[in-house]
Write a structure and sequence with these properties.
single chain; 224 residues; alpha+beta; two-stranded antiparallel ribbon; 5 helices; 32% helix
Length: 224
Amino acid sequence: MMSANGMLQQPLRSLRSQDDNAAVGVYRKRGILAILLLGCVHLALAQIKDAALNASICQLFENPSKYEGKLVRIRAVFVGSFESSGIVDPKCHKSIWLTTPSGLLRSVGAILISQRSPSVPRADFELVKDKDDEKFDRLTSSFGKSNWPYCADYKVTATFTGRLDHRLDFVKDEKGANGFGHMGLSEFQIVLRSVSDVQSEDDPCEFLPHPTLTELPDHISDAR
């Protein structure tokens, strides 16, 4: 015959079992929710990546209206110094200014802003801070192997994704220029969203890092 204590313990065990099952159910639901949320984040990033138009700098100059104001993905060589940052395509010897949603790259100390430089909308994204960005920042901020301040330590090639801005009525005359970057000398600029596939070569002086020129002279872009 069951004692009074035994009769009381049986429903208590049943209640504990129900509580344990309920707790397991809650954790399972939270786990499923976390997986779904992570999947949504990856899907959003994939959609943003897919939304970017693949282009070269040469193509931008050939057909600017196709890319203006849109997210583009460009494979190019970085060129920069204490007063400039940009990317260049050696195939057509053209370059464009490179900036970020928060402002200049860390490698740039100061620039002169033209009073005729255009106003553009604030970026609706932030720079992706990941291992590629860290590697890019480290390589492009390295100076010292050369005694010449315009010569970075590495030639850095990467894939740059960001919004393309274009100065439609770009002019460069005796009064200066009305474009982007240092002294307004660039017809285009990329507002950087992410950088990937970063590669470096210990060949720092292949390009003189002054991308503010819309077209780099042959003796500069072909120099080694």
